[in-house]
Amino acid sequence: MTERFGAISFVASETPEAEAALAKLVERYGNADPSEADVIVALGGDGLMLQTLHRFLGTRKPIYGMNRGSVGFLMNEFRERGLRKRLEAAERSVVHPLSMHAVERQGGEVEAKAINEVSLLRRSYQAAKLRISIDGQVRLAELIADGVLLATPAGSTAYNLSANGPILPLDAPLLALTPISAFRPRRWRGALLPDYAKVTIEVLEADKRPVSAVADHTQIDEVASVSIAIDRSVDLVMLHDPGHSLDERILREQFGY
């Protein structure tokens, strides 16, 4: 029987642990060119997993991560032996990234994708002042805060959780809109939005309250406005060992305090 994942390509972070693991796995399984590989195996932590997902965005190549980093929420346990059997048995998680369209204060426009979240963050000692619209309707005329973020279910356990946002099941058709250290309105704790919503965030008083927009690893300084929506044309496929799917990890995270 032909293996689904006969050609494996490895990528690794630059830590000694990841590089040592890479050498052992390449010796055992070979290392296919990424363009010809059936699967990409990422060796590192969640940061490398995000970089790898971005690198192969739009290719539909499945990504299987093994933890050789400090944070491994998205990763499987590292084992040198039995990799092909693990790949054959792995469960698929398909997620769609956020698409961000940012308009800079000077008029330039920037597009970027985010798998975890898009965040707007103050750039000075002054709190940011933001206006939030959903599908063209203003829902919050003025938010004074350190910032605000919009997270996918896959990203809801990252920065969003640190900002006291809700954890979302992976298959929930929702996005989490979460303030970061809100000053006004004090009681606003964010919102759960349908995942088809288009979110527009305008920066008020941008000359004296500059704001950056960050889509995962892409940062745009001094934005005037940002529009964000799910990009359903892009599928990102992650592989996880049975019993350790992303759904299961998100569930466990909610009972692991």
Automatic annotation (TrEMBL):
InterPro entries registered for this protein in UniProt: ATP-NAD_kinase_N (IPR017438), ATP-NAD_kinase_PpnK-typ_C (IPR017437), NAD/diacylglycerol_kinase_sf (IPR016064), NADK (IPR002504)
MF term (GO), any: NAD+ kinase activity
Required cofactor names: a divalent metal cation
Entry superkingdom: Bacteria
Catalysis performed (reactions): NAD(+) + ATP = ADP + NADP(+) + H(+)
Top class in the EC scheme: transferase
Position of the signal peptide: none
Pfam families, per database record: NAD_kinase, NAD_kinase_C
Residues annotated as binding NAD(+): 46-47, 116-117, 146, 154, 157-162
Record: active site: 46
Record's keyword terms, sorted: ATP-binding, Cytoplasm, Kinase, NAD, NADP, Nucleotide-binding, Transferase
Compartment(s): Cytoplasm
EC number: 2.7.1.23
Coiled coil: none
Role noted for this protein: Involved in the regulation of the intracellular balance of NAD and NADP, and is a key enzyme in the biosynthesis of NADP. Catalyzes specifically the phosphorylation on 2'-hydroxyl of the adenosine moiety of NAD to yield NADP.
Entry similarity comment: Belongs to the NAD kinase family.
HAMAP family with a match to the protein in the record: NAD_kinase
PANTHER family: NAD KINASE
Listed name of the protein: NAD kinase
Organism (species): Bosea minatitlanensis
Annotated gene: nadK
